[in-house]
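user: Here is a favour to ask of a fellow structure person. I have my own habits and do not want them to colour yours. Could you put it straight underneath, so I can go through it closely?

assistant:
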Amino acid sequence: MRSVSPAIETLGLEREFGGGVKAVAGIDLAVAPGEVYGFLGPNGAGKTTTVRMLVTLLRPTGGRATVAGFDVATQPGEVRRRIGVALQEAALDLLMTGRELMELQATLHGIAPRDVRGRAADLIQRVGLEQAAERRVGTYSGGMRRRLDLAMALIHAPEVLFLDEPTTGLDPVSRLTLWDEVRRLRDEGTTVFLTTQYLEEADQLADRVGIINAGRIVAEGTPAALKAEVGMPHLDVTLAGEAPDIAGAQAAVAAIGPCRVAPDGVHFSIGVREGAAAIAPVVRALDEAGIEVEGIELVRPTLDDVFVEKTGRHLEGAGSGAAAVPGDEEPQAEAVA
């Protein structure tokens, strides 16, 4: 059976800046065609530098990387023809209309003149901007500009799409619209390399997740597999009464799963691989033992738990719908000529 080459592959990829600072310290990645790969890391971890190397804006100082089968250092032109890039700060001419910008982008990518108008119109409609196509971009909201930037990145039907924190600062409706578009792109076979500060976003969209810390990959796998590494789901049980029989409660549920008692002697947790299906047996066992329950809650490991275990800190956007203020992650990158 013929093997399929990765859409993105790095082998020992490094980037060192002046003064011996290694922003990326030898990473290995292999992203399959048609996969959504979520790339996470705290500020300063090296994720922005990695993306800049993959999109040919920065030369590696060690190792190698290929995108769509072409080397980013020795064949940057071939790489650029096959990728779409939507960075955090969209470089949009605010005096042009959405349609004019899209048609200009199509022309710059060498799309046949007879196809320019139709291709631009199709993508404007696809991202839900048809009602604003004739308006100047300067009148667009932040979410509209982000959607227009995505449409521009798709104008030449790229094999690989790089999205750098595409929903930072967006309202919930705009965020969900972009999520739907990412899913549609995956279904159409486009490879998506997604950096995000929202763990929920990675959990919802990514087929696999890679976590970078201090320039190295510290965890990689499907969201489900990474969460399973951290621990099984558990039930948090709160017993009723002033002096509940915590020892009796533990004995009653010992056959269901491992227990851990909280220091307050009122709460305890039970590890339950079967998740919600274990609630009824736990309630029944405690009831038969004559122990009254005040509350019971199913808690599943999250990507935030994984992130904390692997990096020692929470991701900046974890657990918040608000956008973090964008800032420079690493030393300023020099462009590749």
Summary: Confidence is low (pLDDT under 50) at residues 320-337. The radius of gyration is 24 Å. The first strand starts at residue 8 and ends at 17. DSSP finds eleven helices and 14 strands in the chain.
